[in-house]
Amino acid sequence: MIVLLDDPRARSFEPFATTRPLGEVRAGAVLIRERWAHVLSAPAIGFVSSPHLSGFSEFAAPPAHEGAVPAGTWLVNTRALPHLQATASDAAVLSIDGRVAAVRVGGDVTVEQLRDPLFSLDSVMPEAGPGAGTRVEVPGVWLEHVWDLTATLQELLLSDIPLVGAMVGARSITEPQATAQAALPGVHVIGLYDVLLEPGAEVEPMTVFDTSAGPVLLRAGARVRAFTRVVGPCYVGRQSTVTADRIAGCSIGDACRVHGEVSSTIFIGHANKGHDGFVGHSVIGRWANLGAGTITSNLKNTYGSVSLWTPEGVRDTGLQFLGSMLGDHAKTGIGLRLTTGCVVGAGANVFDAIPPKLVPPFAWGGPTPYGVFAPDAFVDTAARVMSRRQVELSEAARGWWRTVHRMATTDPRWTRT
What we know:
Number of helices: 7
Helix content: 10-25%
CATH architecture of the largest domain: 3 Solenoid
Number of domains: 2
Oligomer: single chain
Strand order of the largest sheet: 13-15-18-21-24-27-30-35-38-40
């Protein structure tokens, strides 16, 4: 069994930490929770994060953990991202780059202990019994900042896609080439990496796959429409559709609609970008919607490093390429231009031409100063959006979103620029 721990740094990864534990964020081709479940060959039974997330509920996500974490449970730091090829074997401790990433706890640990800002996984390592002291170094990366989700994306996709493809029984359309041409007429492949299709994926004629830099994986129900160039490494999730431009180096979660030029971007899932407009080096929250012509800037005119708002203030990311961070249920109006390193909070609905670099959660309107998206109106809108993907917003979830709305709209951190 696994319990996922968001440490204090993970709990500051905004705009996503407002509405979801870090384990339910996509990193590489999979959610962080799914990554650890595969590596440890065990299910996640709960998460420990900020108290306001105790009502979080979503698809297969485990609930917030209550009570003590029992001895023998795997406790993992969600900022640690092992490569999927890693294996726990009989280890009691897994480390990445010499730092403890996961521990099979030696004794019961309370949630209060785990939320202590000074808590460390080193303090709960087993001291006796089978496997005690067995520490295994595994390949992987750490998320030090929220922008590392984009900085690590290409490395993780290159590592993830072949293994995920094998796990789901995906077939290569590139070996042998003659078979691929017969099965998918009018589809062209450039490069030496694989194009992998899980059964049920569809590719229309006049599609080009460029695998010069990495492989491509299409999950069941995914569709690539005609006149699209898909550049690897690229992952397209179940029931997602990409169409009509260049989709390069992206991780697109389930049930997304992605149209237009998109580069090095993560869609957590169930997001909609149905029209033209460039999006690059960005992370798009679940249920977000980008209006027609929404464009992100991912490179400053000076070619210098991009700064990004964080709860601790504006930080220099050290990255030359960084676009926008859009929280869950964020929405942009038509023709919106997002500045380099823009943060759009969860539930925001903005439709002016160029918002500031920080748009608070549940902001409404345009131009600034923004109003507040009323809680009942937001919940009703969210329910309509979700129903279009045949997902119901339960009464419990409605109540939780009202609680999150109240917390986020009174949080003074969002006024810092």
